[in-house]
Amino acid sequence: MSAAIETLDEKPAGPQMTPIPYPLQSVKIPPPPELTTEQQSKYEAVLETVKSWKEIQSTNGKGGPITENEILWLTRECLLRYLRATKWNIVDAEKRLLTTLTWRREYGVEELTGDYISPESETGKQIIVGWDIAGRPCHYLNPGRQNTEPSPRQVQHLVFMLERVIDIMVPGQETLALLINFKTSKTRSNTAPGLSQGREVLNILQTHYPERLGRALIINIPWVVSGFFKLITPFIDPLTRQKLKFNDDMRQHVPPQQLWNEFHGDMEFEYDHSVYWPALLKLAEERYSERRERWIKAGKHHGESEIYLRGGDNPSLFQSSGDKSEPAPEKETLAAESEEKAAAPEEKDVTVPVQDGSGTEQIKAPIQTNGTQSNGNMDIIPVTTGPVLTTEGDRT
């Protein structure tokens, strides 16, 4: 994690009511493992393929040229996540990446707004607060606080919150901690989701958010929920199943001072939608804007480093060799600069009369191919005839 990151380890005077910006200072995020020669070769093959994508296909009218936001999404770590999820099969990874880009358009991931999702979040049935011992943001699910009937917006709520979790991740960490409390409430005795909705959510998570789940901690599982998990277990990827922990001691996974007391932690958290919701949206928007600004500054490349984009100590992958002060330009940028240079007039020493008629003076001025010279605000004058040089204002 970047040394520039400031953390707040102090306990608030009252209950916690907003997201916690950073993990504890004691949290150390290990560097990612080095790729083998074969893995690096496969990554480079996928990178070359995604750089060739100019159009995103869609069957519902949302197809069209690839956007800057989509190129920003195609980071180095993103490509590696899909490669790992497909056991380093290049063709499968490329296919799944393209499928997800199409899904994100058709599902409208970037079009989901805080105002639209807000009614689903009024009771705090999903909150993002605190960080686990590995620096993962904690995403809490509280089915007992369910306040709406099954609908597409319920699933969109989960997608929206996943995107916000990803927005606030710190440098070097690309997974989240999912904490689920199936405790019933006075208004909700059955906290198990419907089977069809459960399968839809699983499909979205496993297909379009691969390698994002770091740990899932689940407590207070009633018999009906236990039966639900038995029904959906066949649809859960084996690697994902290994990350599920049922009725574990959550304090072993999340520092007690950043673990919600409803999940056996020491953090007193009070949910007030009017306070929490705008604070979450503001934090997520700030983090995303910072990430995008860094991406633009480095040259808008496919395969950029997420560690760099999130403000880590690593430089941009495209500044990692040579001069780090300027990003390596894309081919299109180089071509544009070449054309601009070719079109620019050439500067040569020319002799022109001094305006008071006392003689001549040699100056450096642009020479255009049509036999005229120009200098910004200066009037264009024929070089061969030697007229008086006129300018706007008193310029020497």
What's the CATH topology name of one domain? Phosphatidylinositol Transfer Protein Sec14p
Helix content: 25-40%
Q: Helix- and strand-based class?
A: alpha/beta
How far from one another are the termini? 53 Å
Unreliable stretches, pLDDT < 50, 5 or more residues? Answer: 1-8, 321-358, 360-396
Question: What is the count of β-strands?
Answer: 11
Tally of helical segments: 12
Quaternary form: single chain
Q: Strands of the largest sheet, in order across it?
A: 3-4-5-6-7
In CATH terms, what is the architecture of one domain? 3-Layer(aba) Sandwich
- Assign an overall shape: globular
Reading the helices and strands in chain order gives HEEHHHHEEHEHEHHEHHHEEEE
- Major sheet attributes: 5 strands, mixed
Global Rg: 28 Å
At the first level of CATH, what is the class of one domain?
Answer: Alpha Beta
Strand content range? 5-15%
CATH homologous group name of one domain: CRAL-TRIO lipid binding domain
* Average pLDDT for all residues: 82
InterPro entries: CRAL-TRIO_dom (IPR001251), CRAL-TRIO_dom_sf (IPR036865), CRAL/TRIO_N_dom (IPR011074), CRAL/TRIO_N_dom_sf (IPR036273), PI_Transfer_CRAL-TRIO (IPR052578)
GO molecular function, one term: phosphatidylinositol transfer activity
GO cellular component, one term: cell periphery
Pfam families: CRAL_TRIO, CRAL_TRIO_N
